[in-house]
Design goal:
With 466 residues, the chain is α/β, with parallel strands linked by helices. The chain has helices spanning 8-16, 23-40, 44-47, 65-76, 100-120, 122-137, 165-181, 212-225, 237-252, 255-269, 291-307, 341-345, 358-366, 372-381, 391-407, 414-430, 445-457, and strands at residues 55-58, 80-84, 189-195, 230-236, 271-275, 310-313, 316-319, 324-329, 349-352, 386-389, 440-443. Mean pLDDT is 82; it is low at 152-158 and 203-207.
Amino acid sequence: MDEKYLTPKQIVEELDKYIIGQKEAKRNVAIALRNRWRRMNTKAEIQSEIVPNNILMIGATGVGKTEIARRLAKLADAPFVKVEASKFTEVGYVGRDVESMVRDLVEQSVNMVKARKKEEVKEKAAQAVEDAILDALIPPLREKQPRSTGFSTQTENTNDIPTSDVELNERTRNHFRDKIRNGELEERKIEINIKGGGGSNVGMVGAGMMDEVSMMNLQEMLNGMMPKKSKKRKVTVAEARRILLDEEAAKLIDMDEVKEEAINRAENAGIIFIDEIDKIASGSKKGGSGPDVSREGVQRDLLPIVEGSTVNTKHGVIKTDHVLFIAAGAFHISKPSDLIPELQGRFPIRVELNNLTKEDFIQILKEPRNALTKQYEALFEAESVSISFADDAIEEIASTAFTINAEVENIGARRLHTVMSRLLNEFLFDVPDKIGPNARLLITADMVRERMDGLVKNKDLSEYIL
């Protein structure tokens, strides 16, 4: 078993560290993620036939749909792109080009492979950077070759004293090399040559007559033809190291190899998360005019991408047959059945996420690694102030958030941000002017009730709805 790839159980355990509840959704995404590894380890003749089971997550806002996708991206170590389906209805009749999500996936994949390759050549690049910085500090002297007379002119230097400028220069360079390695010259200013891009942007040339990929390819071709300009900049040694390290690493990387590997990774391990898919579902089957036409047009454009098609990108051609698509939507007004049947069929696994209860809110405030209480503790700790929450205070915060969600608008766990902000804003304003360093704050249930009193009574909470 390859240790790099987590088992479904391990994936769920990792998601549990950040997301409370929603077991069914976690199990399904864990299986889908593991199936990527399983497919790559099957026999070659069946490998291309195994298509991913795309997932449709249905649930109210703030229950964890997007958070599951975000955390999954970090776990997957695979190209991952999150797009908003509603973006494709904003411009024009049909909307933004839906193929852009695949191009973004390839771009993400190229960046990931490039970052890994840079890490592999980091040591070699660091040596070249050190030499470049040393040359800027103490330029090397080249020894002039003496004319040969047929007689040996070498004498032993018994006193270890440099006999020429070249030897003296070399010793000085070695001394400064040690200083660079020890970090003694980090603030010293040096002058370095920085390579700039050749050519200017040609985005306006032929606008409207060329598609996005052709425009990018033209831009790249023109940039390749133009001579690369370099300019001199005076920077500190520390900054020069950062700038030059990127340049030197880029020289050591074969970009053709990077692109080939990146496209392969995007095709076989890529994940596209389409959020707000309910916004492109028609509210009713009747009528075929107005915005519904645009929405259905977007669905029809999405269909070939999800089914599996070939997309041109500036890095090469990619097939989307084995890209995993995860869609999510609240479906308050529309229903999943309002999507066109062909698109529904391409998301065979449907997962309904549960609304959050008061008990879930208590867990959300206590257990995740990124819990709000832990975030506020860290913010106060930056000012050397200690803040802690009593158990009954956490219960009261959860109860308040749940009540407001029930009475006004259910925005899920996002309501906790409203309540915590209302509760702690006064303290955050008083630190460090009135509340000095080393102070200790304890949040109690009475304090929560006192500060939340007006918020719960006032039914018009538009100011606080995120």
